Amino acid sequence: MSNEMINKPERVIVFLIDGLHWKAPSKLKMPVFNALIKEGTYINQSYMIAPHHPTVGEYGRIHTSSFPNPVLQEGTLFIRPGNNMLQDMFTGVSAFVTNTRAYLSVSKGFTINIHNPEMSDEQVVEQSIDLINRHDIKYFRIHLQTPGNEGRYLTYTTSDKPYYRNIWGEGSQYVSSIEKADMLLGRFLSALAEKGILDSTLLVVTSDQGQSEKGWHPIIEPDSGITPLLFKGPAVAANRALPYFEHTDISPTVAALMGIPAPNQDGGAGVFIKEVLDTENPENGRHPQYIKTINEQLNQYNALRARIMIAAEKDSYYSSLISYLENELLTPEPFYHQDRFFEWFKAGTTRHLIEVNGHILEKMKAAYGG
Length: 370
Hints:
Layout (H helix, E strand, L loop, with lengths): L10 E7 L6 H4 L3 H9 L1 E7 L9 H6 L5 H7 L18 E6 L13 E4 L5 H14 L2 E8 L1 H8 L19 H23 L5 E6 L19 E7 L7 E2 L3 E2 L3 H9 L31 H22 L5 H10 L23 H19 L2
Parallel strand pairs: 1-5, 1-6, 2-8, 2-9, 3-4, 3-5
Antiparallel strand pairs: 2-7, 6-7
Helix pairs in contact: 5-7, 6-7, 9-10, 9-11
């Protein structure tokens, strides 16, 4: 289907609730979000690359946020300096409002940038409403940081608390911050309706990362890389559920719905998921599930490498084995793990990256005897 045939929205608003667990809509009081599920296309579990926050090396010099954020903005797993971001594809006013400075590196290209850690989530929404009333914003990214912060703080608490290593526990500030974020989403949508622009707006509600039930988003934790995702707006199917989505697909899908080019179209790029359209049969979609596979490979590699290193205390051969793998002496390509994130583009395609990683995992298992 060509972009000309799509009922194009006049603007897009991406509303991010930091650290939103995929179970939250069913476990917590989120009446606004749950009402939107019936009005739009919903994905209970959208996969993003496992969150990682390198502060050293090339990635740490360039990016201030974890992997999922540049991946979402660029729409590709092949993150390189010079890549376009979604905001670069829009003409007119664009805005990014959040209450942290963690996302400065993915804010380049926005016309209006407000990154104030002193603001509450409520102030972020009020500031966003003020901007909507004063400007004709074509692309708006709003990010409420408090829920993710509260999920992280829970990992510091003591064992005498009912929410110790349990984000759902009685008195959990994570729970209250998620429920408040839902209320603020409702306040924001009411403002759009009062201005008369809600029905012409493409709304995307999701998170940049998932949440462990024990708090925050540890690397070796499947829930860290899963979060709900919702699309609502012109041409978007109502009351539709899709079984799988990847965060690399968000920018290409938004771009297609808005009638603009995707920010990047390399071998690691996501695609336009046409099944969000009300004219498409959702049964036609067959996603290759690349990110789910890569996250599983990363977890296997990290765990297996740790076991090999422990074995090296008794047998130095295993220390050599790690060196062989790290220096590509046993295989023509390395395992594409988190610390090589800026080298992933060398794989050429996501499919080839998965094949290489799978081959090396088999070699590691065979050499280790596990």
